[in-house]
Amino acid sequence: MLTRIVNRLERRKREKFEAWMRARSQSSKTAGADDVRWLLPIVKELVRSSGIEDDADLRHSAQELLLTQLPKEAWMLAPGLEKRAEPVRSTWTYQNEVMKWDIAETDLVLDVGSGGYPFQRANHLADKFPEETTHRVEPMVLDGRTFFEVDIERLPFEDGAYDFVFCSHVMEHLDNPGQAMRELSRVGKRGYLEVPTRLSDVMFNFTRLQDHHRWHSIRLGNTLCLIEWNESERRELGNEFFEALQSAYTNPFQDFFERNRDLFFTSFHWERQIDFLVIGKNGEILDSSSGIGK
After folding, report:
1. Residue, of 8 and 285, whose pLDDT is higher
2. What distance in Å separates the CA atoms of residue 9 and residue 48, rounded to the nearest whole number?
3. Which GO terms describe its biological process (predicted)?
4. Which of 126-135, 160-169, 227-236, 283-292 has the highest mean pLDDT?
5. Contacts of 187 (CB under 8 A, 6+ apart)
6. How far apart are CA 82 and CA 101, in angstroms?
7. Rounded alpha-carbon distances, angstroms, from residue 13 to 95, 102, 201
8. Element (DSSP H or E) covering residue 124
């Protein structure tokens, strides 16, 4: 089996790989971190160039070959070499294909901040920026549903005009999220908000982006709390977790993410009123549904 694997490598890669294997066999020391970093790209190239991803036996043998060169405590670093049958569910896919919604067919539903991925159940769509922005690079979806160009802090609708208002991944961008939430609860009888958590922004390295996410979120009981990022927290953290999540190959982080979406996004259902607290970067209360700090 090993011969079949090695023979699938291009000649130059095969010679380099075999030279490394000979050096390893002549040494009594176990592979170190530098050796592992050198070997992993070769194994990944083997997968890309040799058709291993379509041959389970070859794939498993390639992984076993890699494991023989790693200390036991490093086995968790070895790639699975198996392509995903389908990508990790996006936020839109999860909301529209997995989440269950208590929305009647006769309910009038508004999606505020619909962007490139509007809520399927919405009758009306609304967004402030029909053109491309720093917050959205995908094209705006205008699919025949009624569309309104709006400012979320001054919505042009009557009180209680909608049975349900959907607003996903908008609050974290706003200068005045408290006023936006007052407007949502004014025009809607009930609704849904989704906002990234602190963990999400840190692991996916959104903190490095100036003028992108101003707030992260946490739910405390029935209160949605938005906390402002301070400048010391805005630094480059690397893209390892983001790349692992987006990878076409299965890996433990993808499983962790799919089992624990609630750690990455605050899902907040509300009725009649949105109870919220907006906390500034120095710990001060900037705004709240009770009027404190406003």
Report:
1. 285
2. 10
3. methylation
4. 160-169
5. 110, 155, 157, 158, 159, 160, 161, 162, 165
6. 34
7. 44, 57, 38
8. strand 124-127
Q: Which residue, chain included where needed, has tokens 């995903």?
A: 84
Strand pairing report for 190-196 and 164-168: parallel
Give 91-288's CATH code, choosing from 3.40.720, 3.40.50, 3.30.70, 3.30.470.
3.40.50
Judged by DSSP in three states, 119 sits in coil
* pLDDT, tens digit, 9 for 90 and up, residues 187-233: 999 999 999 999 999 999 998 888 889 999 999 999 999 999 999 99
**Strand order through the sheet with 215-220:** 215-220, 223-228, 276-279, 285-288
Mean pLDDT value across residues 92-121? 96
Of 223, 174, 219, 168, give the one whose Cα is nearest residue 198: 219
